[in-house]
Amino acid sequence: MNSIKENVLVVSTLNWIKEHKLPGNRHGAEITEDIDLITDGLLDSMGLVDLLLFVEEQTGRPIDLKTVEPKDICVVKNLCRIALGNPIAQSTDGCEHAEPSCGNLLAAGGKV
Amino acid sequence: MRNIVSGFLESSERFPSRPALVVNGESLTYLDLRRQAGKLASLVLRTAESNSPLVAILGYRSVTAYVGILSILAAGRGYVPLNPKFPAERTRRMLILSECSQVIVGNECVPHLRALLEGFQQPLTIILPEMADVTDLQTDFPLHRYLGSKDIFASHGSLFETTVSTQAIAYLLFTSGTTGEPKGVPVTHSNVRSYIDYMCGRCDLNETDRLSQHSDLTFDLSVHDIFVAWERGASLYCLPERAVLLPAKSIRENALTAWFSVPSIISVLSKMRLLEPDFFPSLRYSFFCGEPLSKSYAQLWQNAASHSIVENLYGPTEATIAISHYQWDRNHSPGECLNGICPIGWTFAGQRSSVADQDFNILSNNQAGELFLAGSQVTPGYWNDPEKTGAKFVRLGNSEDTIWYRTGDLVKQDWTGCMYYLGRIDDQVKIRGYRAELQEIEAVLRKACGTDQVVSVAWPVRDGSADGVVAFVSGQKVLDEGKALKYCRTYLPGYMVPHKIYAIDALPLNLNGKVDRRGLVRLLEGART
Q1: B392 and B278 share a domain?
Q2: 8 Å CB contact of B484 and A66
Q3: What is the pLDDT of residue B518?
Q4: Whole-model pTM?
């Protein structure tokens, strides 16, 4: 577990999103490591590709998308863990344990 | 004559226990689906309070979305797909324009339903097949009538109407309109049957096949997926929302045998190194439609799906999903591409195409002109709009009895009848496969920015397909971009909302005194380099 590097990666990823993908009607403070970038409407397919390429550039290693679940790369916190090769604990519903944002998503009708 | 659910009914007799639909991890057999849809159809018919031929469906990648569509057709009505990803205001307009008085809603779309009902003044019958208790909605929006799962369970009837007129509307889709209002395209059972019959006659799909369902229901590629699959007794695999962006894993894990999407998806997968040779060994058919298919994308996909037939399909909504096709050939096709773009090929057997000039004179081979289409797949016109219908559904000089649809697409045709797409003759653009009128975007921008001096351009464009739109505004001392974009998001679907609004001193004009869109594109290109 490389927690310091992970924290740095999370911050730089969030900054990149705020700089390159933040719609004019959204505030940077709304963009957190827990939000789902897809269901929240921040990224489309090309935006997701740009984000993945940015994260790969930061870590210097490719993300193996052949094995990664698409739902896991839509949340910055999980994406950064995957990008660094750190495991993300999964429950049977696909949510990370003790992860409040998943619960909010489910309550909102989102599929996790 | 058979209608579009005839194939489903026959498949449910022949293959009752085979999977008809896989969605959200749930698998429904043909028998399951028939029972659920039949019960819901009975409720739809019993609770109809108007003679509207249409019922709306607000569902997103859920069982209710598909059971809803089938039940509406089983009730002898046509379906109007609504999209929870669209702004509520746009959905409200679509609902009003369609004149539907009934809506079937999946639980996943209840937040969107609530936004839609805010200020909605026409009483609706809202059917929520998964909701046991509808009291909250009834309390919050008392104008409307609500029916939940208990009402369906209480219903003893089951219905599958098979005597629907082939001229009845099977579905109504809304496309971008030039006046700022979405434009309805009613597609008849006869139109869709012609398409299904032709595609099923060409492809040897059977009950062991697994077809992708990638597009949203508001995009007519979904009609191909659903009804071609059910016609052949095959399984329909609805991709989950997040897998839509990167579908490679879903294709492999579910061993899909047929794929249908816009070509943009090839670009996405390619960039993420997900198109290795033979990466999709299960695919037998790969269809692409909705925007130009570049030579490089076709080659990449063919290498990744090495056992698959790869086809470029072409067709506007007004000609029912697709009306011409070009089968990719590893050896010959690269040499047949024009400007790096795959030909759109030959018109389906039984359908007709002509290339004509602006005075409707038919042009000879290899002359560039507007593509006109006729035949059993061409729809009857626009919904409740004789003016637009008259402008786009016309007669050509040499065929007075035939109604031709003006596509607005600039093409040329070689001596074999193979067609090559050259661009548009108007301001319509395709944004990742979605059709959009720049004029509609500009109509919203004018209100958003409080000035008439607005222009939008597709940007960036790669291989003939746009990633998005950017806008230019003049005549304002101070532009509040955030406020303007927020306004746009209220009225336009995401793909039509500009990525950026630039304030400039004056809009550049060309020699004819019109706004020089190309000049603006050159500005953007200059800024990029």
Answers
A1: yes
A2: no
A3: 83
A4: 0.88
